[in-house]
Amino acid sequence: MNEQLQPLKKPTRAGKGRTGTQDDIVYAHIFDAILEQRLAPGTKLSEEALGEIFGVSRTIIRRALSRLAHEGVVLLRPNRGAVVASPSVDEARQIFFARRLVERAITELAVQHASDAQLAELRQMVSDERDCFARGDRGAGIRLSGEFHLKLAEAAKNAPLISFQRSLISQTSLIIAQYESGSRSHCSYDEHNELIDAIAARDTDLAVRLMLHHMDHIDSKLNLEEDSASGDLHAVFSHIVARKKPRR
């Protein structure tokens, strides 16, 4: 097995490739697949299959899966392997309750600390999100929607909240993939823009109201019944496999 995994050049919003250690790269791809709702809750994460897909050893795969398990999006089962977490109804309610508390705190702090440069970056993310949905790239749009909330946490300038928010965002994505009803409409970029305006105006009360309304909107789309996404690892990471094939 090839231990020298090269940085996987997955385009990001800023056009940069994936960099870091081997397990950093594997972790980032799996995290994005969850954030984009391409990995179904309950999917078995075979170390052998993932090692083949990414061209690394099982040790590297185990390290990446351990990090994801620490964030609550992967379940490590003794003697049975890892699976993508599949939150129960009660767990989903607890996660959304925690998310509301964290989003309120982040919003209050962002009003105090967000710089003009950070607000401009948030506006660009909303524009990119809108473009993704307009061209039918729903997965990328969903990922950008989640990254918007992570970037807002960075603007709040509170390291523990950033770490907690990262876990909550990915767990929320699993819940939406598992339980969202109807047309599975995305996180509203119009609501994101209104939130940025309130933060830019340094209006804490309005910003908090808009954030809680935004969370109500997401919550209202859950019926706690439907499953979606995919359980086929090779299909989810087909872009990785295709990239590894030699050109003729």
UniProtKB/TrEMBL annotation:
Top-rank lineage group of the source organism = Bacteria
Q: What is this protein called?
A: GntR family transcriptional regulator
Quote the SUPFAM superfamilies the UniProt record gives: GntR ligand-binding domain-like, Winged helix' DNA-binding domain
Q: Cite the residue spans of the region called Disordered.
A: 1-20
Q: Where is the HTH gntR-type domain?
A: 20-87
Q: Where are the transmembrane segments?
A: none
Q: Which UniProt keywords apply?
A: DNA-binding, Transcription, Transcription regulation
Coiled-coil ranges from the UniProt annotation:
none
Pfam families the UniProt entry points to: FCD, GntR
Instruction: Name one molecular function that GO assigns to this entry.
Output: DNA-binding transcription factor activity
Q: Does the keyword DNA-binding apply?
A: yes
